[in-house]
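Our platform keeps sequence and structure together, in a single record for each protein. Such a record has a labelled line for the sequence and another for the backbone structure tokens. This encoding replaces a full spatial description with a residue-level series of whole-number codes. Below, we set out a record of this kind in full and without editing:
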Amino acid sequence: MYSLILALGTPTTASDGAAAGGSMVTTLITFGVIILIFYFLIIRPQRKRDKEAKAMLAAIKKGDKIVTIGGIRGTVAVVKESTVIVKVDDNTRIEFSKNAISSVLNKKEVSAAEKPAKKTEEKIEKVEKPAVEAPKAEENAEEAAPAEEKAEN
């Protein structure tokens, strides 16, 4: 009879069931953490890049300087629904799918030119604020001085 019990396995007790349930919870938590790590390190940044690429393709207009995924540089001559005709040389025009455009060159130049202008405006505001606040500090010092004199008398 004892050999039959050993062959079938040991009977489970309440503590064995709790341990099995606890290990299942830890396993689920571990998988949840792994999924969160994948989301924040892979999925979310990829979605952000996709949104930026779609916005860039939607904003392409005639006259923009572009680079294709093949490395061809040119100027946009005509924008259609799903294609763009790019002027590569004086008389050379090539039609590309919009998805073949990797970047718009003159957009970066414009945004780089705008950033220093914003920084100088911020610097001007920072310089003006202390100049306005400084007389208030002097007035407070003058008001504090007569109070000190009265305390000495």
In short: Residues 22-58 form one domain. The helical segments are 2-8, 14-58, 105-152. Residues 58 and 111 are 17 Å apart (CA to CA). The beta strands are 65-68, 73-79, 83-87, 93-97, 101-104.
